[in-house]
Fold these 4 entries.
Entry 1:
Amino acid sequence: MFADRASQFADEGDVQVGVVVGAVIAHELGHLLLPVNAHTRDGIMRAAWTPSFIPRSGVGVPGFDHVQARLLRLRVADRVASR
Ligand SMILES: [Zn+2]
């Protein structure tokens, strides 16, 4: 179950489970909005996460790389414009 995995990951990394869930949501939104094979070596689209991936403070969670961030903005703007 996702909640159990998120909670275990948070415990192992000593971070708040809400920060983990937020990071997972961002990652999955990346899959919805970016082209196939969106995984990257680093950043929020990294395929495999370890507990140290998310800082204990919850601040400085890895983000999208520059190219992905720009593409996400363009795709969201396209969707908003086509409403
Ligand atoms: Zn993924």
Note: Residues 2-81 form one domain.
Entry 2:
Amino acid sequence: MQEALWQKNDFKDLDNCHIKIYRDYFSHQKANHFLSQLADIEWTQSEIVLFGNKHSEPRETAWYGDAGLSYSYSGIKRYAKDWIPFLEEIREEVQKVARVSFNSVLLNRYRNEKDSVSWHADDEPELGASPTIASVSFGASRKFQIREKNNKGEIFSTFLHHGDLMVMNPPTQNHWLHCVPKSRKASNQRVNLTFRKILNLNS
Ligand SMILES: O=C(O)CCC(=O)C(=O)O
């Protein structure tokens, strides 16, 4: 976890894009340990509403956080499950870098190359005006893409690997969308954890 070993920024010199990627933030051994713990997560494949139609999300998800938290996206309202110790351990580690106290984590499980998350920004009202999001990846490497909200043309890509930490700092979510596209290449499971600070309690 030494600064010198980290690549400074894969999305360099992009306006209003303050993303920093810490390669191998978790050692291979530590990342393997957390990946094995992720087998205990209660995964669900939710039905979401897109343009008035119901679909199954193309991945499995779970949401953990402080008691009483709720969060809505794509027409689903979620209530946080209680923290489990290894998720709190990961949270402690990412908070050292992100310098934000996160009160929840959204987990995404991409079972294979067909699973994905489509273009979006983490800009739901519960996250406040301009949130910091810390994202940790375990398992297979997958492509992660960004593009400006008001510019459909240019797409910038990187790969997120086992043990990488990516911090998306303000004002990134106000100006940029991100996605994990389906892959043509066969892929084993990948799990991504995005730590978030939800502002509304008990609603
Ligand atoms: O899997 C990833 O790297 C991205 C996850 C994501 O976009 C999200 O949770 O909002």
Note: Residues 1-8 have pLDDT under 50 and may be disordered.
Entry 3:
Amino acid sequence: MKRDPRTIILTLRRCFKLQCPVCGRASVFAKPFNLKVHCTACDVIFKREEGFFVGAIMANVVATEVLILVAYFSCLLFTNLNDQTMLTVLFVFGVTFPLAFYHHSWSLWLGLDHLIEGLPQRSER
Ligand SMILES: [Zn+2]
């Protein structure tokens, strides 16, 4: 399905704000680390079949790995930290970033699914 750039930007903006990628009127999370089953405003389904969110987890892992590599090479090039300090900083980053990025990776995965094939309505199920 072809999407115009304004729709893509609008959807991504909603994803970064953790709002429904379809309507943008409700949050996709009921509480921290707890995805809603469906949108309370437009009724699209957020919680999907088993395995659907493996992509969100993979996106979180890949983003963490890429940022650790960037941080590692930045430390090598622009600082003179010793190895122990650098490894400690990278370890703390590697533990805290996936937790901080968790909600956004799930929201972005939902938004990507919305852009590619559209999220199903509850009545379609
Ligand atoms: Zn909605």
Note: Residues 5-124 form one domain.
Entry 4:
Amino acid sequence: MRRIYIGDLQGCREELERLLEAVKFDPARDRLHSVGDAINRGPDSAGCVRLLKQLDAVMVLGNHELHWFDVAAGWRKAGKRDTLQSLEQAPDRDELDAWLRARPLLHVERDVVLVHAGLDPRWSDLEATAARLRAALDGALATGHSPWELAEVAFATSVRYCDSEGREPEGDWPPPPAPYEPWDHWYRGARIVVCGHWARRGVVVAEKLRALDSGCVYGKQLTAWIAEEQRLVQVPAKRAWSPVTA
Ligand SMILES: [Mn+2]
């Protein structure tokens, strides 16, 4: 089996299909893994979720999925740049929404951990952390609370910089001064972390990091990392679907 990890889709369903062709994806022997943010800003959020669901992909939730839960519950209004209509109006909306709600925040494998944005330096037992975050999210969704009220869930899906204690700066741009560093600066775990969320930083391949957000929705590329072949595969975006903002 090959494990194929893909960066932030943000509704770029055509690019996902092209990437599957480029890696010669075989559902009988390959397993697709998504870093989350499969939806929003791009043209076909529903199509992305439908395809991931059909392929029984492993997926962790990103900040845009949490935003969708807020919008769907009426806790937050859709923003100007949101393109969640394809999901709102999908004939299979309930199935797609239920599938998304069942995804984890952290997916821990023997040698790899999948998370949307990053890991808190204080999280040492990642399996216990994954279970705690999942239970917290279930509790929030069941009791009518926004996932954003959960500090650890917000961290996993949105961190870029933090200090050695997991404290985040007020903003990520311009780059904050010391003691803030990109979160992976503090990472000491044994597993390779696969993540997305940071298009401005782009693809990073380091000993313990595969950061795969190459800004497809902004007109750049969609990136896959094939673990068993230790290689990256990229396809170009068909066009810029969303303006880049600072
Ligand atoms: Mn994100």
Note: Residues 2-236 form a domain with the Purple Acid Phosphatase; chain A, domain 2 fold (CATH 3.60.21.10).
